[in-house]
Structures are given as C-alpha cells and as structure tokens.
Amino acid sequence: MSGGPPGRRGRAPRRLQQSGDGCDLHLTVDLIGVRREAADRVRAGDDLRIELVHEGAAVGAICRNGEGAVVGALAAFPGLTRLLDCLAREVPFVAHVEEVSSTRCVVTVSRTDP
C-alpha cells in the first residue's frame, strides 16, 4: 500500500518551480458548502477556476466549474491566508478535482503557469 493520498497512487509528485513570491502552494482540501447542482456536473480530473470574492469586509475564495457555477468555497485550512494574499496579487491558481459527489468535493489547489 502506498503512503500517498487515496486516488493518487502511481503518480509521480509534481515538481514545483520556486518563484520566491511565497505563492508556490500545493494543498489538498475539501471544499466547504458544496452546491449539489454544480457538483453534479463535475468529475474527478476536472479543473475548477478559483476566484477571490469580497462580501463587505470579508474576503474568501470560491471554486467555479466550467459553466461558471459555484461548486464550493475554500475555507478553514492551513495556508488559506497565504492563498488569499496570492489571489489578491492576481497570482493564478487552479483547483484540480480529486474526488467528487453531490455533497463532497476534494481538490488539490496549485499555482498555474502564467
């Protein structure tokens, strides 16, 4: 049995280029507040667009599917503050779907090449 996360056996780890700006993040997390109607149109292997959102004084990050529907939010994990800072500086990120159901979506967040 491999020591890696479920569903990733046999994959070689990605090498991340170090940019020096503190935005070389690679995190696997569960989305919060998964929206069933949007999640039902997402499959493992899809990439979701990550967007910074502002509501009053609050700042957060959401993930949208290819149709633009919100699948869920990125919240409550180590590295979130750094991710939000990088998104505010317009550093592009993608959320690669590892596992998905109507109520759960696990994504790996990583920087995309400019």
Concise summary:
The chain is mainly beta. Helices cover about 10% and strands about 35% of the residues.
CATH class (first level) name: Alpha Beta
Number of strands: 6
Beta-strand content bin:
35-45%
* CATH architectural group: 2-Layer Sandwich
Briefly note the CATH topology name.
Alpha-Beta Plaits
Mean pLDDT: 84
Describe this protein's structure:
With 114 residues, the chain is mostly beta strands. It has helices at residues 36-39, 80-88; strands spanning 26-30, 47-55, 58-64, 70-74, 93-100, 105-111. A 6-stranded antiparallel β-sheet has the order 1-6-5-2-3-4. The N and C termini lie far apart (36 Å).
Per-chain topology:
Layout: E1 26-30, H1 36-39, E2 47-55, E3 58-64, E4 70-74, H2 80-88, E5 93-100, E6 105-111
Antiparallel strand pairs: 1-6, 2-3, 2-5, 3-4, 5-6
Region (Disordered): 1-21
